[in-house]
Amino acid sequence: MTMKITIDLEACKGYACCMMEAPDLFDIDDATGKAILLVEHPTEDQREQAERGARSCPANVITLQQIG
Ligand code: SF4
């Protein structure tokens, strides 16, 4: 099963909760103050971290999709 992470960067408020909850998958761009997606397709082992990161976002702009 393959998962895809997307971030609506227009709506990202740079709270950095995603990076704190899932540092392997998200970072913050110091220049823009917005999130950077480090891994678009997390592995099975990273699934829990991806879900935690998405849940942690106060702006609710991280989407997880099952793509196969
Ligand atoms: S937690 Fe949400 S709003 Fe905050 S930086 Fe991450 S994606 Fe952006």
From TrEMBL:
It comes from the Bacteria. InterPro entries: Fe-S_cluster_ET. Keywords: 3Fe-4S, Electron transport, Iron, Iron-sulfur, Metal-binding, Transport. The keyword Iron-sulfur applies. One of its GO terms (molecular function) is 3 iron, 4 sulfur cluster binding. Its cofactor is [3Fe-4S] cluster. PANTHER family: FERREDOXIN. This is Ferredoxin. The lineage of its organism: Bacteria, Bacillati, Actinomycetota, Actinomycetes, Kitasatosporales.
